[in-house]
Amino acid sequence: MKTSHSERIARALDTFRIELPSWGFSNTGTRFGKYLQPAAALTIDEKFSDARQVHQLTGACPTLALHVLWDLPSGIGDVDRIASLAASRQVEPGSINPNLFEDQAYKFGSFGNPDERVRARALEHARDSVAIARRLRSRDVVLWFADGSNYPGTANIRQRKRWFEENLAVLHSDLQGGERLLVEYKPFEPAFYHTDIADWGMALAFARAAGPRARVLVDTGHHYQSQNIEQIVSWLLSEGMLGGFHFNDRRYADDDLTLGSIDPYQVFRIFHEILFFEWESGRRADIAYMIDQSHNLKGKIEAMIQTVGYAQELYAKAALVDYEALASAQAGCRLVEAESVLRDAFATDVRPIIQDWRRTNRLPVDPLDAFRQSGYLERITAERGGRTSAASSYA
Ligand code: PSV
Ligand code: MN
After folding, report:
1. Taking residues 135-158, what's their average pLDDT?
2. Average pLDDT in the 291-303 region?
3. Quick one: 5-384 is in which CATH superfamily?
């Protein structure tokens, strides 16, 4: 007997977790400036507190990604404070993100900098980040490099690749047990001629060169227009090298728009490839799902709650794909039938089933409405609103 839609969705949502980014709760902007929000979090305590709201209302976000420079400015010296904040807010520290791009020393790169002293300094910061992750019992260190160049001929691309490989191998040798390095790629910004890890192939090569505990991280905003992201996902799954996601949507480039707000079908297709892989292989893909969005105009906590809801919806739709029917239609080259299997799942209105799942799990049926009714926003706006400081980070 086939499992019902409700059972399939409940099984999918019971295990679906998505990490929140600490930087998503603070004031951010574009290179043209910031519009400050009175309720934005300025301190790490406030970021944990806001993350807790999102987790309590959605039940899906037990961890908060931390950016070392922004959240642990004293590095390892901040670990005890973070650990006790996390315990009191009941949100665990999530992935640890070294910052290898804001210091003036990194003007011409970090791991790829021609100056050996800068490469050593960048490595030291990354190693500190591994130590921080261990102390906080965080599994993943996420490496994103702004390294690259703006003009042809100005950088020795092959030499920089070797320098990256050297530092990554040393960093990897620090890892123990289940600890992982996730290598993120991005083809543009802040460098506009070449970036040292421009695409998934380069990230894969670096992850492999680093060692067995390294994987690739796919940030959905870090692709060229119309790139087939779900194919990249399938390949990384098949290679056993997909470590995690930074989810966001985009219209043009790395726009940090709400997941699924522009192209929900693409997010569905990504989730489908993962769940199809799990069905075929009979095992769960070990993937860290994370949000990487900084909202300039939307209320930050509302935007996160909305994002988690969209993620759950699209994941639930993907869980409805009839794999037997799909596999059979694919094998028989019945194209219209195969495509329709996906379209049928995508077209299903899963919202009532998700509401039931929330009821069963003693969660608010409408998390956004519950947030608006809770008075939390009014309270933090009053408490935080008097501050004029713009001392928060860009993302
Ligand atoms: C870079 O665009 C990125 O996607 C990296 O993941 C950073 O850690 C994050 O955004 C915040 O700047
Ligand atoms: Mn990212």
Report:
1. 98
2. 96
3. Divalent-metal-dependent TIM barrel enzymes (3.20.20.150)
